Protein 1
Amino acid sequence: MNGSSVANTSPNVKSKEDQGLNGHDEKENPFAEYMWMENEEDFNRQVEEELQEQDFLDRCFQEMLDEEDQDWFIPSRDLPPAMGQLQQQLNGLSVSDGHDSEDILSKSNLNPDAKEFIPGVKY
């Protein structure tokens, strides 16, 4: 491509003389940003459709979250009230700290020298 064909392909380039003092084209409509008001009904319809679509997406997302919440097991919600007492009893249990384990071992009837139990093997 030579330079003359490049100059001919860009007709939108305007010289400084074509532009006004404020940097805007003299031929440009000074009310261009308000032209949407000419078709206000179409604009309102479009905005309303966008709002309805956003509302629909929000409802779908909330429904999806609600379904997901139903899939999770939450004891306070999913267990009957009697199970709450059992839960409290379980919470009250604790593991011993090892002080009583020597007493348990001295009173035990188990043989510490016995072979390890392996299921399916006969001795």
Protein 2
Amino acid sequence: QVRVAEYGNVKSQLGAINRKQTGSLAVRDLSNLIKPEDMVTSEHLVTLLSIVPKYSQKDWLSSYESLDTFVVPRSSKKLYEDNEYALYTVTLFAKVVDNFKVHAREKGFQIRDFEYSPEAQESRKQELEKLLQDQEVMRTSLLQWCYASYSEVFSSWMHFSAVRVFVESILRYGLPARFLSVVLAPSTKSEKKVRNILEGLCGNANSSYWRSEDDVGMAAGLGGETESH
């Protein structure tokens, strides 16, 4: 359980990262879509990232310059497009960023907060590589452990099953222990036929225990998950 939990935790972290990288532009990580030359940052100017609905791109291009008086003309550039949205940049004076966001939201455009950082991008890349490596190491270790343990677990299970059959037989038929314990392995299609044969062999009141049509079978088996007749 510990090994499975550790492996599942790593898989969950990778799944979260993959969702961020493959989701829509409204929620996904944008760092791998942005290049340094796409962002303008100076004492007075900043570049914002706008998420524009795919079918509203003409509206964006015709209106973004008028959303505030301090927007740099013709500064918007499309960087990426998916099935729902398009990603645009826009450059403007830092002092009007808040007003621009409000006016953009009123028009149905989402301004994503983003700060380009090569260090952070490299850190996320290294984190992803480490998680992928950890996942493979844990998966290999878990599989090897399962292969090595399966024989022992299965043998133990058969041992418990044999003990249980013996005890059930003593409780049902009494002492001395004059009965035969056997293993039958019919195909799935032959199971009902085998039960009918066993029912005929019993030839007494106990024959009803072989029937599968009713619920005379006992809920049993290891862990209570297997039918017993």
